[in-house]
Design a protein that fits this description.
alpha/beta; Molybdopterin biosynthesis moea protein, domain 2; Molybdopterin biosynthesis moeA protein, domain 3; Molybdenum Cofactor Biosythetic Enzyme, Chain A; 4 domains; six-stranded mixed sheet; about 20% helix; binds adenosine monophosphate; binds magnesium ion
């Protein structure tokens, strides 16, 4: 799937919008963010004790303490009304603002105060027990580059800097059409010869996880004109369309035809050298992506994770490192054969042990949704390889 990156880069990221800080979680910065001020805005104590000038404490010992004059107490949340001169100290609590002339804090445990004098029983080095002004971020510096994923800690930084109006990219609207005369919706009673539509729902959930806004357009019978009519509507209303089923070359497979009929349609790929998931179509129609996904339930999700999810993240302006599933190396629990000529993605369960994880293959057909529901990830066997031996390390992509 090495060509996926170049395929998805043919699509432009979506337009920018600005959202409130807390709505930005899980999205991606659309612009570089620079610091409007120092963080922290002043040097602060990280311990309760005495603000001092470190050089006043040099040589202090338990048996031979240095004696400093206590000139006052620093109140939390206030600027000290005095500065320290040589030989002076001031009481300070964790988070308090260091007065001018102080560059360290002596922990209260190493002090004893009596009659306005404090004994310092242990020296401190400059900057000990303090956080310096601008130690997190200096005013004007780039804090995060565009494409950065907005995690809880990133939200914390932005709150700390007073940045509450966050530039992100719009969420991709994604339509789901499921094709097949055999399908009925999950809320209807089952009938002979019918199966319930799984893909509309598993794909809906997967789109949500990937930051998109999914919309189910229902079940489309295997009638070419009907698929085209429904596709037109879904295409108008969305940024991406997923058509599940009908993507191979059978007599009742109309997905390719329907995509090709849209004005200006370009076929980016038809058929991928991936097992499972061969009958996959990607078309580009005026800046919008239309996927024909395999109907087999496990294959549809696999191709979603290998191709659709990276595209949805790219449309949201994610940095390249966020596009693909995270991968680890895991030890194969047994021999896993593979026919060369196609990249094989084996659903696996992972079990932790001292050295890492073992990957146990789930040898189930791709029409079985249980195979996917039980899996922790996909073990990749490269196109040229004839398989993986027991105990060998292999790449495993982790399911989100
Ligand atoms: P197709 O790709 O249309 O040839 O379908 C391949 C297999 O996947 C067939 O057994 C279909 O019944 C099944 N299938 C197609 N779409 C769905 C769906 N939405 N939910 C569950 N199974 C499906
Ligand atoms: Mg079908």
């Amino acid at each position: 799937m090495s060509e996926v990156l170049s395929e998805i880069k043919q699509f432009e990221s979506l337009p920018k919008e600005r959202v409130f800080l807390l709505e930005a979680l899980g999205r991606f910065l659309a612009e570089d963010l620079s610091s409007p001020e120092d963080l922290p805005p002043f040097s602060r104590a990280t311990m309760d004790g005495y603000a001092v000038s470190a050089k006043d404490t040099f040589g202090a010992r338990e048996t031979e303490p240095v004696i400093l004059k206590v000139i006052g107490e620093i109140l939390m949340g206030e600027k000290p009304r005095f500065s320290l001169h040589p030989g002076e100290a001031a009481r300070i609590a964790t988070g308090g603002m260091l007065p001018e002339g102080a560059d360290a804090v002596v922990m209260v445990e190493y002090t004893e105060e009596n009659l306005g004098l404090v004994e310092i029983k242990k020296p401190v080095a400059p900057y000990e027990n303090i956080i310096q002004q601008g130690e997190d971020f200096k005013k004007g510096q780039i804090v995060f580059a565009r494409g950065t994923k907005i995690t809880p800690a990133v939200i914390g930084v932005m709150a700390g800097l007073g940045i509450t109006n966050i530039p992100v990219r719009k969420k991709p609207r994604v339509a789901i059409l499921s094709t097949g005369d055999e399908l009925i919706p999950p809320e209807k009673p089952i009938e002979p010869g019918k199966i319930r539509d799984i893909n509309s729902y598993s794909l809906f959930a997967a789109i949500k996880e990937a930051g998109g806004e999914p919309k189910i357009y229902g079940i489309v019978p295997d009638v070419a004109e009907e698929l085209f009519e429904r596709l037109k509507v879904a295409f108008e209303e969305n940024d991406v369309v997923l058509i599940s089923g009908g993507s191979s070359v059978g007599t009742r497979d109309y997905t390719l035809k329907a995509i090709s009929q849209l004005p200006g349609a370009q076929l980016i790929c038809h058929g991928v050298a991936v097992k499972p998931g061969k009958p996959t179509i990607l078309g580009k129609v005026q800046e919008k992506a239309i996927f024909g996904l395999p109907g087999q339930v496990a294959s549809a999700l696999l191709i979603f994770y290998l191709m659709v999810r990276p595209l949805l993240l790219h449309l949201q302006g994610a940095n390249e490192k966020h596009l693909f599933l995270k991968k680890i190396l895991a030890y194969a629990e047994r021999n896993i054969p593979s026919a060369p000529g196609r990249e094989d993605y084996i659903r696996v369960k992972l079990t932790p042990f001292e050295k890492g994880f073992t990957a146990t293959p789930i040898f189930k057909k791709s029409g079985l949704i249980s195979s996917m529901a039980e899996a922790d990830g996909f073990l990749r066997i490269p196109e040229s390889s004839e398989g993986i031996y027991e105990g060998e390390l292999a790449e495993v992509f982790l399911l989100p």
